[in-house]
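Our consortium's second objective concerns turning raw sequence data into structural hypotheses that experimental partners can test. To show how far this objective has progressed, the report includes one record in full. It was chosen at random from the queue rather than selected for favorable results. The single chain below, 166 residues long, was entered without modification.
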Amino acid sequence: MIEKDDLTNFLRKSFTYIREPFLVLEVKDNKTAIVYANKKLLDLFACKNMAELTDFAWEKLFPLTTGLSGDHAEFEHMTVADAKGQEHLLNAEVHKAEVAGRELHLCYITPININRNLLTGLLDLRSFQEVGQSWTRDWIKEGEHVSIISFDLVGMKDYNNQYAGG
């Protein structure tokens, strides 16, 4: 049996939720410009400089801020492709603000990074079959250690009978 503290530490190492990066967009004449962007966004979205990030934000992130009912919106578990086409799972929070007569959109981008070499946590066998099966087989072939957590014990028994010993 795993001690609660050990499990908590393991999960913290395996699943990382980051509050930054942070982005401020100014909306003027139906166009957007980056007022501030955390440098982590350049890496996250594979942009070489702020000009590229501005173009990326206009194409991929600004549509999130249009048509907000009220001054706040949350987007959970979105998939956004970066400039190189790599998809990222993230959450976003957008707040409208007016500062010195400027219409600003404050965007909190929260990438969801899962260290897949350590843990694949899934709630049911269907999710596992749709998402994790091919990854798991590939990691096992590469000699990676894979742990699977599931609440579908009957389904996992069937899976283990089929793929055990990989």
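The partners drew two points from this record. Residues 64 and 94 are 8 Å apart (CA to CA). The two ends are 24 Å apart (CA to CA). Both points have been shared with the crystallography group to help prioritize constructs.
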